Amino acid sequence: MVSINEDVYDVVVVGSGGGLVGAYVAASRGLRTLVIEKTDRVGGTTAYSGAGLWFPGSAPLERAGVENDVEKARTYLRGVVDDSSRERLQDAYLRAGAQVIDELERNPRFGSFVYGPVPEYYAAAPGASPAGHTIFPAEIPAAELGEHARLVRDPLPMERWGRDQGPVLNGGRALIGRALAAFLETGNGALRLNTALESLVVEDGRVVGVDAVSEGERVRIRAGRGVILAAGGFERDPELRAKHQPPLTGEWSNGAPENTGDALLAGMAVGAATELLDQAWCVPGLVWPDGLPLFHTGTRGGIWVNAAGERFMNENLPYDQAGREILRLHRTTGVSHIPAHWVFDQRQLDRDGFGGPADQPVGPEWFESGSLKKADTLEELAELIDVPLETLRKTIEEFNNYAPTGVDERFHRGETPWDQIANYVLGFPAHPELSFPAPPTTDWPNPLLPPLDTPPYYVATILPSDIGTKGGLKTDEHARVLRPDGSAIDGLYASGNTMAAMSGRVYPGAGTPIGSSVAFSYLAALDIAGAKD
To answer: Core-most of 213, 355, 480, 490, by most CB within 10 Å?
Structure first.
């Protein structure tokens, strides 16, 4: 075992997504802090994301003039999670969100976060806000980050298809680029890429460092004050997924490919308790020409049907609820819902486009790969997807009957503030509290329910995907990792998808996953530094 600077670091952070914020907070307090990253770029799944942060009470919401009542948000969070064992974590999260944003905005590297109107996902729950509580990092030109920009992981479209994202970093890449620069500029921060966690070093019951493989060499790195595990979930480990979340194996995940549960397993090996290992941040995935699904939300026309040719849900549900519903029905009804078939017609294609901007034609690769299929008649369509023709015909007729009234009598598509975000994207009326521009006219009372009656017909494939697992190491309100008896493992902390989610089995609002990574890595850094939150 080769030893590297055993006495150098106060804090080691494993992973470089939202945990970079915790690394910055620790380093800014004078703690010598090392971030180790398994890959050759920083950012993990956070770099793929929009970097929404669900932070009720935060200053950007006040600046935007939207409702910002933390107690109301607490009522909402308590109600939708419905798990008293998670209330202390929720309270810690709600305190930390506003505090960490205040601290970050004091450093010009982070700029000013901005409000984005995304409604809470459970509209009928007490305390739900149609305007939401989600904020986003400001975009930043790569040139402004200098050499730090090249260290930020590419977005998913770039990694999968080589799509150049231009000279400006936004969303998750902006958050990561800003956090990386701020961290390194403290003078107390160091970054070690291509360094994969193997195990935790424990002495006298306390975690005092990590054993890792760095550039092919086994190394031991000491952490005098603490180790923060912020290395994502286990979404890409087929054995763990098959064990805890069948029928999923990870191949359809939109999480970073390197997220194979290294930190989870290391924590378990030193006696950590775990929770929610059967849970993920679910999403529907639209299968693209490379044969893999991509996070899909905002189905604005057409219907999804199962193997029986039946429509089975509001296709525009908030994405976590939509992904969960596909899995639930597949597991419980005796009818296959994997894959689901997204059926639409030429009218929708002309209005909304497919696979790109609405004013651009569908690329030939969609048809050549079979990811999008075309049929001139319903008979041909039923044969293409191998469903009973008469059932499919009846399903479409029922759906078309909703167009004149604008009321989806079966699944209520278009009735919630979340659904109406899709209206805004189309240029139609959204919920009044979202304060969007006046809309154009439309031929139907509900622009999310145009009839499916204009051949040719098209069909695409929907699979259950995710943006990461959400079960992991059990922690307390300071992000300290706990044993099964509730005692804390000295020197060990976890955040983000490495910890069991404070939101339990639900997804309350946009920005909960990355918000949890930022908030709990912040709380971990405060505890390590001996500060009070």
So the answer is: 480
